[in-house]
Specification:
Strand content: 5-15%
CATH architecture of the largest domain: Orthogonal Bundle
Number of helices: 7
Low-confidence stretches: none
CATH topology of the largest domain: Recoverin, domain 1
Number of domains: 2
Helix content: 55-70%
Largest sheet: 2 strands, antiparallel
Distance between the termini: 23 Å
CATH superfamily of the largest domain: EF-hand
Order of helices and strands: HEHHEHEHHEH
Strand order of the largest sheet: 1-2
CATH class of the largest domain: Mainly Alpha
Length: 151
């Protein structure tokens, strides 16, 4: 499924685990009753109207039980919406408009928003973790993956 390529393996595992915890009968689908029971198990009582509203937000094909692919599609929609915000943040940090964040740009940004300021070693560790192509800078896609993986 193409939407699965949008997520990291770790994200898919988390989503699948959450899905399975709600899918009480293990049939690969979440019914309104299972969703209501899941909320009740954490002491949240929802009206049938609210459950129906939540199901409709995810159930794109109108089949009513929601399968895992529909959950992934909804999550991808949510993340795409956040993507525009991530791009704006990246553009604000990319002060030289090079299309990548240099260690200096990242250091300046992180020093301004952390107290006490992050050390060079801490910033270098962030760059190393996020820098997928090992060029010493963080490109836009790497930045987005870094932000998404922190959730």
């Amino acid at each position: 499924m193409a939407v699965q390529l949008f997520f990291t393996e770790e994200q898919r595992k988390v989503f699948k685990s959450s899905f399975k915890s709600i899918d009480a009968d293990g049939d690969g689908k979440i019914t309104p009753e299972e969703l209501k029971a899941a909320f009740k198990s954490i002491e949240i009582e929802l009206t049938q109207e609210k459950i129906d509203e939540m199901m409709s937000m995810v159930d794109k094909d109108g089949s009513r039980p929601v399968d895992f692919s529909e959950i992934l599609m909804k999550k991808a929609e949510q993340m795409r919406g956040k993507g525009a915000q991530y791009f704006k943040a990246f553009d604000a940090l990319d002060t030289d408009k090079s299309g990548s964040l240099s260690p200096e740009e990242l250091r300046t940004a992180l020093s301004a928003c952390t107290d006490p300021p992050m050390t060079k070693e801490e910033i270098d560790a962030i760059i190393k973790k996020a820098d997928g192509n090992n060029d010493g800078e963080i490109r836009r896609a790497e930045f987005v993956r870094m932000i998404q993986s922190s959730y």
